[in-house]
Amino acid sequence: MQVNMHEAKSQLSRLGRLAWEGEEVVIAKAGEPYLRLEPFAKRPTDRKPGALKGEIWIAEDFDEADQDIIDSFHDSPIAPAEHD
Q1: Model confidence pLDDT, tens digit, residues 46-67
Q2: Which of 4, 36, 71, 82 minimizes the number of CB atoms within 10 Å of its CB?
Q3: Which residues lie below 8 Å from residue 27, measured CB to CB, with a gap of 6+?
Q4: Longest dimension (CA), the chain
Q5: pTM score
Q6: Over the chain, what HEC string results?
Q7: How far is the first Cα of the chain from the last one, in angstroms, to the nearest whole number?
Q8: pLDDT at 75 > cutoff 80
Q9: Distance between CA atoms of 28 and 5, rounded to whole angstroms?
């Protein structure tokens, strides 16, 4: 739904309810889309490194490549043999 600025001023409560219920509400200025009215959503908090320290276990060999997996990629459709 698109409404002009004057209408939005006089019907803000109704438009807010419609936006909260999922209706797309665009406020136009001089006939052109100017603002989008949408429900407030809290922004995610910044990540804090180390927040799960002591709660997660990672194996000592986590970064070591398994040779069987590496071998399965050689001469496969993913990594075809090089041609001279």
Answers
A1: 888 888 888 988 889 888 888 8
A2: 82
A3: 2, 3, 4, 5, 8, 15, 33, 34, 35, 36, 37
A4: 75
A5: 0.51
A6: CEEEHHHHHHCHHHHHHHHHCCCCEEEEECCEEEEEECCCCCCCCCCCCCCCCCCCCCCCCCCCCCHHHHHHHECCCCECCCCC
A7: 62
A8: no
A9: 6
Length of the chain as a residue count: 84
How would you classify residue 30: left for phi > 0, otherwise alpha for psi between -120 and 50, otherwise beta? left
Distance CA 46, CA 41 (A): 15
Q: Identify the residue whose tokens are 């060999």.
A: 61
Amino acid residing at 65: A
- Cα separation of 26 and 32, whole Å? 10
